[in-house]
């Protein structure tokens, strides 16, 4: 059997980006060849003119900028980047001067309508212009969802000062987002983040989003590989150790990456632009590669095999090669057609692979391995409650965080519990929940008796609540058409009164077609829309999706019913649960007399 790398790692060459991982203290069961994941790649690449492969960007004054000849028909965001380099807000400390001005002054001086709101996203700052003028959401980088009690307390201290506007969300990429931030505070917040080992740099707009990994990496007795060293290195590589990396800060559109370390596929590889799938090859451990998965308002696609395998040491060079191909060749016109899969369609999978291969330091890329290490018959495990770790005498406990929303006091209390019972560490999950690892097994009962776990943050949520996910919604997001978080909880409570469900059902809510709530991979998904009520007037509603899957048999759900008023959702969901998921109607008490 081949051993995957242990969590300690060092970079040995800045030019080749080669890595060396030490062997782990355990071995895997022997693997046997399995079929490739997902769908077959294209076999007949389209004809591509040679001049189409000319890089569309060039390095100028330390930053990549779109060449003059490729600027016709570009989208407004690309124009903003050309007019004023967003990374200078951080790398040349432009945020210090900007923070001294009022939003009214900034709006009066801005070059275009979207100028400052777009550029600030390179610092992870999202202006809530529509609903909270002058207030910002700040998105962090938190590779693998691993955070500390000190980091959690610092974030709590930031949002506390903003009163009702201040709160935090766990995102569907294992990340923190904090709300209520005002621009004059940003320089000090950035320094505070750095002091606890955090950054918000390059977390929005045309950048690489938070690298996702196994939420129980390093503590999971059944893991294939500890994903933490890979996700940490990817994040450091992409941001140049939080100093800012212009190599990858001018992509055609946002870009998602994950490293799979579990049979459970907690990492959701099929909806990432690049997914590393663990596989052995010729006695070496490494990764097969999936590319192109994404959601958007116009199109949703699962990732497809690149027909390539890299040894573990080449995780970073491969990432760099894929990003460079996307940066150099991706289209920058209509915003809805700029994700990486559009480029793959244009070049064909073999054409895209060739462009990645030529950008590898060695100029070579091995073909996919047949020795996939993910067990496709694996039944996805529940991480709620108490579970033994691979470390003898330690356990982890999964807590439900209703629709990912926390207040400052909640974060302080989580930090206290992590310090008192664990090692001062917390893990965030893509389902917007929280895990406390490294709890001495002898202390688990005392932890379970904590009042904090008796209320909202339960280790044993109800069967429908445990799979509930919701995006920000119209409370804070200007693009959302409907309110999502409170409504998701309310509708789920109503449904639980109508039916009894025999097994978990994942229900996802998103406020608009941008689908941050990932409704297409939910068992039942709700996408916000406006529809007509009984009186013919416009009311909040949802398009209902059914049949999405995550895991080795992943696929995208389909529309079940469009334009359902939110007031009519509970009975419809109950009907779907009975029809599709084996639910049983609850007998009302008045009928039992």
Unreliable stretches covering 5 or more consecutive residues: 5-16, 22-43, 589-593
* Morphology: globular
Structural category is alpha+beta
Number of strands: 28
Helical percent range?
A: 10-25%
CATH C-level category of the largest domain:
Alpha Beta
What does the average pLDDT come to? 90
CATH homology superfamily of the largest domain: Sulfite Reductase Hemoprotein, domain 1
Kindly estimate the percentage of residues that lie in beta strands according to DSSP: 15-25%
**Number of DSSP helical runs:** 15
Distance between the termini: 64 Å
Query: What is the count of distinct domains?
Result: 3
Could you give the order of strands across the largest sheet?
Answer: 5-6-9-8-19
Could you give a short account of the major beta sheet?
5 strands, antiparallel
Spatial extent as radius of gyration: 24 Å
CATH topology of the largest domain: Sulfite Reductase Hemoprotein, domain 1
Protein name: Ferredoxin--nitrite reductase, chloroplastic
Family: Belongs to the nitrite and sulfite reductase 4Fe-4S domain family.
Catalytic activity: 6 oxidized [2Fe-2S]-[ferredoxin] + NH4(+) + 2 H2O = nitrite + 6 reduced [2Fe-2S]-[ferredoxin] + 8 H(+)
Keywords: 4Fe-4S, Heme, Iron, Iron-sulfur, Metal-binding, Nitrate assimilation, Oxidoreductase
